[in-house]
Amino acid sequence: MDAKKIRHISIIMDGNGRWANDRNLPRAFGHKEGIKSIKKIVEACTVRQISTLTLFAFSSENWNRPNYEIKLLMNLFEDSITTNSEELHSNNVKVKFIGNLSKFDKQLIDKISELELLTKDNTGLLLNFAINYGGKWDIINAFNKYISSIDASEKDMKIDINDIEKYLSLKDNYPDLLIRTGGEHRLSNFMLWQHAYTELYFTDCLWPDFDVSELDEAIKWFQERDRKFGAIKNIKTSSKNNA
Ligand code: IPE
Ligand code: IPE
Ligand code: MG
Fold first, then answer.
1. Atom of ligand 2 nearest to the CA of 186
2. I want to staple 94 with a disulfide (CB 3.0 to 4.6 A). Which of 36, 120, 122, 143 is the partner?
3. In this model, does residue 60 exceed pLDDT 50?
4. Paired strand residues for 130
């Protein structure tokens, strides 16, 4: 495996509200502008032959926002799916949604299912949108799915790492590089399991300002990392050390 090759990029798209505040605009403008950044970055990832892009669009904690902002975001998701489905499909992008989708309106769930169905056989970029997603939810959900799959009367039951991994919303495909825009240095409950060995890149750039050159900057930073996965590289052996 080539440790420098990026297969999977994940992004915490943060800073929409502040982008709008800086311009004395309502936060809605920042969210709308953020959709333009998504389009640019999806296209750039396709061109750069990244295999997976996972975007954090709405966290399980974002329900704590005022109702009008939640409603606005839901409408934006729905409109963006309607507007961009055909283009994503014609660019061979396979779209998936991860998270607890059951909390959304039927209308949005239907749109999501239509887009997933339309693009399911595409072989280009795999584009995951995390909505109503929480890393803790993902792990608990996997445990519950595992428990439902077994005979709970087994006395000496022991859980293996694979038992849980196979029920996570993303499996066998974990991010190499996580980008968080907006200046905060935290995961905000985003893919706690899947980011265990991801390289973490933080930038002050607000999401609506994030463009292809910012993406390339992050990729360049990634190329300079030395990924060791707990091992030791370039061990210099001497007869003394080997004693
Ligand atoms: C990220 O931008 C978008 C969502 C969480 C939906 P924010 O809305 O968090 O923007 P800031 O952090 O308030 O600037
Ligand atoms: C993280 O951003 C969630 C998304 C980008 C969807 P938040 O703005 O919600 O995170 P906190 O509240 O600053 O941790
Ligand atoms: Mg924020």
1. 14
2. 122
3. yes
4. 56, 98
- Enumerate the active-site residues: 14, 62
Query: SS3 helix, strand, coil % of the chain, rounded to 5?
Result: 45, 15, 40
The pairing of beta strand 52-59 with beta strand 8-12: parallel
Contact 210, 19 (CB under 8 A): no
Pick from 56, 35, 54, 36: nearest CA to 45: 54
Neighbour order of strands in the sheet with 126-133? 94-98, 126-133, 52-59, 8-12, 177-180, 199-202
| CA–centroid distance, residue 235 to ligand 2 (Å) | 41
C-alpha 18/C-alpha 23 separation (Å) is 9
Q: Residue 164 in contact with residue 143, Cβ under 8 Å?
A: yes
Residue to mutate (ligand 1; options 11, 12, 14, 25; most atoms within 8 A of CB): 14
User: pLDDT (tens digit, 9 = 90+) per residue, 8-53?
Assistant: 999 999 999 999 999 999 999 999 999 999 999 999 999 999 999 9
For 199-242, write each residue's pLDDT tens digit.
999 999 999 999 999 999 999 999 999 999 999 877 665 544 44
Expressed in angstroms and rounded, the spacing between residue 202 Cα and the centre of ligand 1 is 15
Q: What are the residues facing 178 on neighbouring strands? A: 10, 200
Classify domain 8-134+173-228 by CATH architecture: 3-Layer(aba) Sandwich (3.40)
